[in-house]
Amino acid sequence: MLHALDTSDVARKYAVARYLPDWIVEPTLRHLPARMVSEITGIKSATGAETSGWFVGCTLTSRQLLNDPPERSTAKIIESCKLAADLGADIVGLGALTAVVGDKGITIAEQVDIGVTTGNSYTVATAIEGLTKAAQMIGHEPQHSTVAILGATGSIGSVCAKLLADEVARLILVGRRQDALDELAGEIAGSAVVETCTDISDALSKAPLVVAVTSSVEAVVEPHDLLPGAVVCDVARPRDVAKAVAEQRADVLVIEGGVVAVPGQVNFNFDFGFPPKMAYACMAETMILALEGRAEDYSLGNDLGIDRVREIQELGEKHGFKLAGFRSFERAVEQDTIDRVRKLAAEAIEAYQQGD
């Protein structure tokens, strides 16, 4: 399931929208029915299993999904799920902010006759894998590093924290509510020292590694927030990291979380900004479950469960899905970018130490 990130996405389909203010476009969008965006063909597992599907569009923007009454947004999402079922789908993956509305898919699953998943379990698995690999390439040793998790109390952030607790030296859990952070900290079992923080800038001043997975419509990470050599895995959509970071901080690396290569000769017949045969991990989870013949409710609600993350990672490997390198702000991250960040970070750290 797709949705418009903002009204500029609406204008890609309805050209007249580019000439109208948001306060006209968004209310109009609410009255448009869910629509079939494209057919997806050519997905073929390493086991020989095959599947196909569709992109369906939920006609709301990110701002509407976050700010409208949950029951209104939920009704639109259910409408989109029923369209998917009418097309012939056995399972539907909730994409971007359709996965965080209300109770994160539980009510939606109760109201439709096909399987529902947010794709969050596989998103977590690939985000952690991506962060770890990118950190090592820049020169960090994750087991001796501090990781800040922005949006730690959400469904993705909390399980990331639990999985990383034995992989890093220190975790800084960042969220809006101190009571929720304290509750999460009490649930984490591992060797890492666990701290909590409600100030993003303060947390980022202490953490060279970052997982960003808030539900904010606006960017929450600005250029001045990050340490030299910082590696940020931005799982959020819309992004948590401001584009200005890419423009102003050549000494940091921002990667998009959960970018995977899909096995077979897949054709999405829709341009969502990725190279051919690549998809978001949340999309890939739906494909993996379909290939496995498990058209069931999977990643729903706040408590994803570590076992579920590990299971979908194993199933992804079985069917031939794999991390597809790194991407940053719609572009592939080349080796020269890795080399540049590593060099500039080392220089900045050396200059700081000499200044002391």
Write a structural description:
This protein is α/β, with parallel strands linked by helices and 356 residues long. It has a domain at 122-258 and 326-355: Rossmann fold (3-Layer(aba) Sandwich), CATH 3.40.50.720. The protein is built from 13 helices and 17 strands. It is globular and about 65 Å long. The model has no long low-confidence stretch (mean pLDDT 92).
SSE diagram, text form:
Layout: E1 2-4, H1 7-13, H2 22-30, E2 35-44, E3 50-61, H3 62-67, H4 70-87, E4 91-93, H5 106-111, E5 115-117, H6 120-138, E6 146-150, H7 155-164, E7 170-174, H8 178-187, E8 193-197, H9 200-204, E9 209-212, E10 231-234, H10 243-248, E11 253-256, E12 259-261, E13 264-267, E14 278-280, H11 281-291, H12 306-319, E15 322-323, E16 327-328, E17 331-332, H13 335-355
Parallel strand pairs: 1-3, 4-5, 6-7, 6-9, 7-8, 9-10, 10-11
Antiparallel strand pairs: 2-3, 2-13, 12-14, 12-15, 16-17
Helix pairs in contact: 6-7, 6-11, 6-12, 11-12
Describe what is shown at a glance:
The protein is an alpha/beta fold. Helix content is 40%, strand content 21%.
